[in-house]
Amino acid sequence: MLTIHKLLPQGQGLAKVLLQRAATVELDWDVRQKSRFAATDSQGRELAIFLPRGQAVRGGDVLVAEDGSLIRAIAAPQRVLKITACATHGTAFDLVRAAYHLGNRHVPIELQPDHLKIEPDHVLADMLRSLHMTVVAADLPFEPEGGAYGGHVTHDGHSHHHHSHGAGHAHGHEHAHSHSHSHSHSHDHAPAQPAGGCGHAQPKAQGACGANCGHCDHHDRAHHPGQGCGG
User: Fold this and answer.
1) What's the CA gap between 154 and 227, in Å, rounded?
2) How far apart are CA 165 and CA 146, in angstroms?
3) Burial class for 204, CB neighbours closer than 10 Å (0-12, 13-18, 19+)
4) How far apart are CA 204 and CA 175, in angstroms?
5) Quick one: DSSP state of residue 205?
6) DSSP 3-state assignment of 122?
7) Hey, which residues does 62 pair with through a beta bridge?
8) CA distance 231 to 229
């Protein structure tokens, strides 16, 4: 077993050839956010990682074993919610608003220029749809911002789970709560249809925005299957 106490962020200071030759270890965020864990690298070697408390492992970081072995970390694809502004009814500012509301709930968020990513949470998904956002479940690497989990790590290296916290906030905001109930029938049927769709009610004159869009009420979906708000 290789014991590891050292991490080089993004392999800083290492020659490219060393990075190419290094073994790899593929880990999801649930493991990488811990400072102490066990894993198996691409060469079948057992790893025992003991990093300073609160230090997370990012994709591209290099773990240095006590014998000098290098192991490059890879962010493994995992189930996340990918959040974008509704192409028909939304604007770029909606993404900023969504990030603000998620930040208020202290959930880990990956920020990208054209989308956000969070861990699956149906309460937060409903809230985001009420804010004009399109929410789609996908299997992708997850690299949340440092500030999204900083200060929320428990004594054993785990971050606080955000589901109950997010649920409490969603019920505390009348707007998000009322949308969740008003569209409850369509959301209950969402798993049988393509995931995603924003959830804010808009006049039909706005036009169609695609299948399973939250803008459409149950009546519209029944009479216009596979279509959004238009018609």
Assistant:
1) 45
2) 19
3) middle
4) 21
5) G
6) helix
7) 8, 72
8) 7
d(Cα 154, Cα 109) in Å, to the nearest integer?
A: 18
Beta bridge partners of 27: 75
Please name the residue ranges forming H helices in the chain.
Answer: 16-21, 29-32, 92-104, 122-129, 146-149, 163-172, 174-182, 184-188, 218-223
pLDDT in tens, 28-60: 999 999 999 999 999 999 999 999 999 999 999
> How far is the C-alpha of 174 from the C-alpha of 45, rounded, in Å?
52
Listed residue (158, 98, 169) closest to 129, CA to CA? 98
pTM strictly above 0.85: no
Six-digit token pair at 120? 């699956």
H-helix or E-strand spanning residue 24: strand 23-27
Residue with the larger pLDDT of the pair 138 and 182:
138
188-197 burial: b if 16+ Cβ within 10 Å, else e: eebeeeeebb
Whole-angstrom distance, CA of residue 197 vs CA of residue 189? 13
